[in-house]
């Protein structure tokens, strides 16, 4: 384990394994976000900024924009469709915080998108909730973890591209 995994809340025996799983999941999502493009739906502006610090450059949509949740979701369906045109997969990744409020928003979005027959992905949130809950319970908290996570995520990209 490298020293970068240590610090407040990061000293557990399985920290390196948790961080590597989180980084791999973030790398997969970042690749899909760039290449397909699969939009990521987050709660607010600081969440989007946290993902950008981790190298996300595809579409990142914000739920809290002064619109009703239903209106935002209809806009996203109109913009990105129900299925990816490249592979028939998800057009949206739902990434609400993994606190109580985020859980409620995630459930609301899930129900509404299912009723609209939209393919969406919740895997990243599940992985981050499981792997990073000791360090953060909010997406914007990834900003403070970017120094450790970004090189790990970038390493998976190099491997995917055949350079690693």
Give a verbal description of the structure.
With 164 residues, this protein is of the alpha/beta class. 53% of the residues lie in helices and 7% in strands. The chain has a single domain (13-156), classed as Dna Topoisomerase Vi A Subunit, Chain: A, domain 2, CATH 3.40.1360.10. It has helices at residues 15-35, 45-53, 69-80, 100-115, 123-132, 142-160, and strands at 39-42, 60-62, 92-94, 120-121. It has a four-stranded parallel sheet. Helix 2 crosses helix 6. The model is unreliable at 1-11 (pLDDT under 50).
Count the domains: 1
Question: What structural class results from the helix and strand content?
Answer: alpha/beta
Number of DSSP-assigned strands = 4
Write the CATH fold name: Dna Topoisomerase Vi A Subunit, Chain: A, domain 2
Give the averaged pLDDT, no decimals: 90
The level of helicity is 40-55%
Whole-number radius of gyration?
16 Å
């Amino acid at each position: 384990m490298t020293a970068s995994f240590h610090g407040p809340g990061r000293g557990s025996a399985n920290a390196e394994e948790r961080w590597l799983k989180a980084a791999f999941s973030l790398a997969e999502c970042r690749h899909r976000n760039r290449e397909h493009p699969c939009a990521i739906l987050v709660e607010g502006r600081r969440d989007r900024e946290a993902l950008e610090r981790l190298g996300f450059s595809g579409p990142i949509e914000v739920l809290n924009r002064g619109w009703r949740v239903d209106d935002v979701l209809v806009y996203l369906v109109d913009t990105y469709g129900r299925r990816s045109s490249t592979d028939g997969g998800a057009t949206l990744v739902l990434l609400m915080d993994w606190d109580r409020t985020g859980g409620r928003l995630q459930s609301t979005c899930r129900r509404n998108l299912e009723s609209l027959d939209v393919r969406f992905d919740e895997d990243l949130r599940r992985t981050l909730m499981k792997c990073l809950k000791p360090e953060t319970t909010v997406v914007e908290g990834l900003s403070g973890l970017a120094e450790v996570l970004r090189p790990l995520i970038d390493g998976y990209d190099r491997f995917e591209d055949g350079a690693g």
